[in-house]
Amino acid sequence: MPEGDTIHRIALRIEAALGGRRLERVEAPNPRSPLHIRAGDLEGATLERVEARGKYLLLHCSGDQVLHSHLGMNGRWLIRSDGSAPHGKPWLLLAAGPRIASQTGGKLLRLTSARRARSDPQLRQLGPDPLAPDFDQGAAVQRLLSWEPSAEVGAALLDQRLLAGIGNVIRIEACFAAAVSPWRKVGRLEGEEAAEIVTSCRRVMSEAVRTGRRPKRIYGAERKPCPRCGARIQRRRQGDDARTTSWCPGCQG
Predict the structure, then answer these.
(1) Which of 109, 93, 111, 89 shows the shortest CA–CA distance to 101?
(2) Does 171 score more than 90 pLDDT?
(3) Can you list the positions of beta strands (E) in 9-75?
(4) CA atoms of 190 and 29, how far apart (whole Å)
């Protein structure tokens, strides 16, 4: 599933391609698209701004209209500026001149009003996004420290109510950077450890947005030597969703 850094990169690319422009062509040619009937309602609107919020993407258009998207496990956005059409039948196509953005597949794609988007329960329950301009580091640290004490840190970080946009790679790399075991109980975290985890989440995500690649020091490196202490990287399933978790038993105390 795309993590928060991926959605922020997509938002920046759509903003660069279509931001401030009148949408001359809006289509949903795939009959499986939730917007197959309604897509034309956006034709002629101006894309005013693009917002990433955790793993959700919000395209704010004139006329009080908002496109609300979540890619889920298999969704994809494709942005082109050369006028070339996407292959197949996308779920949504937005075009202004040669600039085209299209989404295929996904968990969610709907057209709503700005008022309904503001009160959407899925969005309102999200925790703070580490990549948001108004991200409050101190408040996020306290949020982590006040989380369910019996929860394992690695599992807690996947809960979007804690921090929005954190996925498997980000939480594994953030825990490693902070030298904290993902199996540690939240109630046993020290303040400095919680602060380092939050800082590391933001650092990993920011680097991924800047470079287009997530830094991976131990993700996918099971049974290889730890780059910090040389111990063997281990892997085990964690949480209700049984997500694969990598960690170093040598230096992640």
Answers:
(1) 93
(2) yes
(3) 25-27, 47-53, 56-61, 65-70
(4) 53
Q: Which of 185, 145, 187, 181 is nearest to 163 (CA)?
A: 145
Q: Indicate whether this model's pTM tops 0.90.
A: yes
Which tokens belong to 227? 């780059």
Q: Please report which confidence band the pLDDT of residue 86 belongs to, taking 50, 70 and 90 as the band edges.
A: confident
How does the average pLDDT of the chain come out, rounded?
Answer: 95
Q: What DSSP assignment string belongs to 195-243?
A: HHHHHHHHHHHHHHHHHSS---SSTT-TTSBPTTT-PBPEEEEETTTTE
Q: Which residues are catalytic?
A: 2-3, 55
Rounded CA-CA distance 177/112 in Å is 40
Q: Tokens standing for 98?
A: 């040669």
CB 30 within 8 A of CB 91: yes
Six-digit token string for 148 = 């369910």
Identity of the residue numbered 164: A
